Amino acid sequence: MAATGETAFWIRGVASSKEALARPPWPVTLSALIALLTMALTRRDAVLPVLAAISIIFSQLSSARLKPGSLKTWILRLLIYTGASLVVMANPPPVATTAAVAGQLIDLVMLLGMAELVVQFWQRALLGGTNAVLILLTGFVFVTASKSFVQRFMPWMTPLYVTALIFALHSIRPRAGKVRQSSMAWMRVLLILLALSIGFSSATFIYRYKKKIDRTGFEFVPAIQQAAQKTVGFSSSPVLGEVQSAEKSMTRILRVEGLNQYPRLRGIAFYDYVSGRWDPPAENRGYEALATGELNVKTLGPRLTITRLCEEPQLLFLPLHSAGLQIMQDGSLQRDTRGGSALLFRAPPPLVYSVVLSDTPRYQGPLCIAPDELTMLHCKDVPDTIYPEVWQLAKQIAGGERNPLKKVAAVEDYLQKNNAYSITTDPGAGDPVSNFLLQKKAAHCEYFASAAVILLRCMNIPSRYVTGFYAHESAGARVKIVRAQDAHAWAEAWIEATGWVTLDGTPPLGRPDVSSEPPGFWRKSAEWIMDTANSVLNALSSLSPWQYAGLSAVTVAAIAALFMRQRRAAKGKTVTIVRTAYTRPGEDLGELAAHFDGILYRKQIPCPPNMTWHEHLAAAGGPAPRGLDLEQARAFLNLYNDVRFGRPDDSAAIERLRAMLKVLER
User: Does 303 have pLDDT greater than 80?
Assistant: First the structure.
């Protein structure tokens, strides 16, 4: 075994617990925290990056470590990897295209990289052997975090990260020895200036050519950009086509708590049918501000607590016959000026609101505003594109019935019995609703809702097309989960002396409670993990300033106590570095080792305790670093090793070593 710097090893003899633990240099830790902060700022789900950053901070305060390659380490790594996989599985792409699936795989790899970063920080790595791996992982996390649609933080985070990265690379470079303090001071100043200039230059370059970089990437995956612009699970501008306008996915949209006899949660109504399209789109409407109190028409009665879990759309979803509405946070409640059929409340998720229900059937609450003259004209309009045979079919369905409620029931019954449900259809040439009715085609719910509205208007019954969600998935006692795949469409008809009533012509087999795919065990498990983490964060966000101050004080006190306990435990305690299994050298050889270390120190190239003499001299390089005769020094080391480990009692060899040291002193 090669000789070590034996003065450092035997005269000091031991290392402190801090040295034995060999924590990563502070620039490495800082670069990791900046990368995780960037991920938290640029992603919707900031919970996991925040938890990872907290874990890394605690790894620097705690002396506990995982043994690399041990069974416990691999079990923990497997559990963390499984959790990251569950998070990705809980958010599948709305459309299973090749590009969307590739994006999901990229998310998975990104979370696995973040998980491995945390594991590496908690592993016991003597002498900082994993620092290069840590730097590579922080770079991977930062680069993946930067590819996000949220870019407003990147001009600040990029130079910070690049600066920390340069310091991190500098901190792990091999050191041959000390240099003069004055030179070190100037080197540090120059290094800081160089790091800052490179950091800000890199940021400028990235943002100057960002569009070209993105354009190049999208050439390989063109569907990603298109999918990112779509609304998940809900159509704000329905168009009758081969498939439903609203995208289907397992993304959770609403959580409904309470006993609800109305599964249809309406979002918005449409009045104008134009060649297979319903207008006006939600984003092109006018909205007027309302006081929340205007919708508390009836404050007594059973209640539903609805939590909106999505960012878009910003509509409120509730039953048509709701009696009142109470929103649990400040903000501006708005209602569209076109018949008051949509309520808008702009707020980030989760948004919680309470809906008062009525025991009276077909209760005409705040969503059942009587149509004015202009709205009534739109609700009766049948465009010229509708085939004349549809008018004849409507007359046939009505069958001479004079009661409008019975006409509504007849239309609903006719559609369910004469047209089958299908997730895809062929609209055909010409008007899609006319083709659907006259050819008795199979189609999805948007065709059934459109056909119901057109047939009722042909019977002179005002009606409108409605989109929303169908709540059916049970998540416990009196709790329903609404997903994007539960998007549905139906019709509402205005009956004099009764008000607005709902009719759904879609056959029961085509409604979301039958046609939707149930979530699997792994998805539910991942959602439970995320819900638990969000509950903790929500509880923290609801604290008052005094509660925050108290919690912060307790946290700081706990960390300080842990740190002081660690310091007291480490004070006076020594941990032998287990690098060698040989005995202490004899008195003569110990004196020679100390003498050789002294020569290196006087030549201003002292041997670090984590390097052997041979490694140190190889790193020093050059023909004669600091005036040291390398040939003579290597000859001394070769003879020393020979004596030290082979013939420690050879007095002649020891005298030769003393003579060689005198030559090295010159």
Answer: yes
Q: Which residues of 197-209 are buried (b: 16+ CB within 10 A; e: fewer)?
A: eebbebbeebeee
Please tell me whether residues 213 and 351 are part of one structural domain. no
Q: What contacts 219, CB < 8 A, 6 or more positions away?
A: none
Q: Is 128 left (phi over 0), alpha (psi -120 to 50) or beta?
A: left
Cα–Cα distances (Å) from 351 to 90, 150, 298, 345, 540, in that order, read: 20, 21, 22, 9, 16
Q: Residue 581: how many CB atoms within 10 A of its CB?
A: 6
pLDDT tens for 100-115 read 566 667 777 788 888 8
Measured between alpha carbons, how far is 301 from 142 in angstroms, rounded to an integer?
Answer: 52
Q: Provide the edge-to-edge strand list for the sheet that holds 499-503.
A: 264-270, 463-470, 487-495, 499-503
The verdict on pTM exceeding 0.90 is no
Q: Would you state the pLDDT for residue 621?
A: 57
Name the least confident of 71-75, 222-226, 432-436, 467-471: 222-226
For the ranges 98-102, 514-518, 638-642, which has the lowest average pLDDT? 98-102
Q: How far, in Å, CA of 588 to CA of 592, rounded? A: 6
Give the neighbor-by-neighbor strand order of the sheet with 287-290. Answer: 287-290, 333-336, 343-345
553 shares a domain with 490: no
Q: What's the whole-number mean pLDDT along residues 300-306?
A: 83
Give 337-356 pLDDT, tens digit per residue: 877 778 888 888 788 888 88
Dihedrals phi, psi of 385, to nearest 5 degrees: -75, -15
Count the neighbouring beta carbons within 10 Å of the beta carbon of residue 371.
19
Task: Considering only residues 35 and 194, tell me which one the structure prediction assigns the higher pLDDT.
Answer: 35
Quote the mean pLDDT of the chain.
76
CB 252 within 8 A of CB 534: no
Compute CA distances 562 → 63, 125, 358, 566, 569, whole Å: 10, 22, 57, 6, 11
Identify whether residues 336 and 465 lie together within a single domain.
Answer: yes
For residues 412 and 371, membership in a common domain is answered with yes
Q: Do 298 and 205 reside in the same domain of the chain?
A: no
Q: What are phi and psi of 336, to 5 degrees?
A: -70, 145
2 belongs to a structural domain: no
Q: What total number of domains does the chain contain?
A: 4
Tell me the pLDDT tens digit for each residue of 135-178: 888 888 887 777 665 566 677 777 788 888 887 877 766 544 44
Q: Which domain holds residue 646?
A: 587-665
CA distance 332 to 348: 13
The token pair at 287 is 């909205």
How many angstroms separate the Cα of 244 from the Cα of each of 91, 234, 275, 421, 544? 21, 10, 16, 12, 46
For residue 137 the two structure tokens come to 């992982």
What's the pLDDT at 247? 61
Report in angstroms the alpha-carbon separations of 380 from 245, 266, 389, 445, 453: 24, 21, 18, 21, 9
Does residue 537 belong to any structural domain of this protein? no
